[in-house]
Amino acid sequence: MSNNPKIDLSDQITYTIINNKATVTGFKGEPEYIVIPGTIEGHPVTEIRDNAFYNCSTLKQIQLPESLTFIGHHCFYGCTSLEGIDLPENVSEIGMGCFCKCSNLSYVSLPSKITVIPDSCFRYCSSLKSVELSENITSIEKFAFSCCTYLDTVELDNSLVSIGDYAFFMCDSLKSLSIPESVTCFGNEAIGYRPAISGHSVIDDLKITCDKDSAAYDYAQSNAIELSYGTESPAAFDSLNNCKLPIDVPDFFFWSGLILLTVALISVFISQRKKKKRSRF
User: Fold this and answer.
1) How far is CA 92 from CA 74, 114, 156, 237, in A?
2) Cys-Cys link to 164, which of 41, 171, 186, 187 (CB 3.0-4.6 A)?
3) pLDDT tens digit string along 198-256?
4) How far is CA 37 from CA 74, 175, 188, in A?
5) How many CB atoms lie within 10 A of CB 20?
6) How many angstroms from the chain centroid is the CA of residue 166?
């Protein structure tokens, strides 16, 4: 199959060619469906420039080529009709605010080469329901998913290190979040806050699942967010009794032990009586 389908780009996009590489720079008219080919004038399409589809409110779907490696900042900002997008596997970087205010965006597929979810990337994506971050994501920057009010499922991988200021602010539908121990840095009100009459308040029914003695545990405690723990080790169990309080033993074990002790004492007593009788003879 050809990587360069015969598509008339004249009424859809603008582009430039520099150093034998094609870059999409903008759009024309009011396009609803756009297919960007792998090559333009024989040159590979590797980049979509900053603000290229800024406020293209009519755009519903766009197909991106496998040759693409970079998507600039605010590239799809305000594309309020955009329903979903699959980013090609070769894309390694997306700019800040890339999908900000894409209010109809319900799904997005992120390639494994991306390591950072940048500032305000999905801010105000109020139709986005679930997000699965790849194993290579190390940082979620400030406001990344802020005001994603419909978001209820987020999968975080063990490579994640930091979650920035207000990254999940006003994610009211997010009721539980499992945070790996690898996350060591939390920004201001990074998770679990919403607007209030006076300032911001904690979302009451949010629960964070994490390991004890982790940064997530400290964050949840200091922000009065409900906690749930992962699998406890013997050491963790021992720490639960670090106040030296007596540990309750079930009645079954108590009475079983008492019966065994009684039987043992009776056996010793009978054995001693038999020895005394033999010594008389």
Assistant:
1) 16, 5, 19, 43
2) 187
3) 889 999 889 999 999 899 999 999 999 999 876 443 333 343 333 333 444 445 444 55
4) 21, 41, 42
5) 9
6) 14
DSSP string computed for 27-72: E-S--SEEE--SEETTEEEEEE-TTTTTT-TT--EEE--TT--EE-
Using a 10 angstrom Cβ sphere, with 0-12 exposed, 13-18 middle and 19 or more buried, the burial of residue 133 is middle
The widest CA-to-CA distance across the chain, in whole angstroms, is 122
- Please list the residues that pair with 236 across neighbouring strands: none
Is the CA virtual torsion 61, 64, 69, 72 positive or negative? negative
Q: How far, in Å, CA of 156 to CA of 262, rounded?
A: 56
Q: Are 51 and 57 in contact (CB under 8 A)?
A: no
| Segment 4-15, tens digit of pLDDT | 444 556 678 999
**Burial call 258-270: b when 16+ CB within 10 Å, e when fewer:** eeeeeeeeeeeee
pTM over the 0.85 mark: no
Please tell me the distance from the alpha carbon of residue 206 to that of residue 196, in angstroms, as a whole number: 16
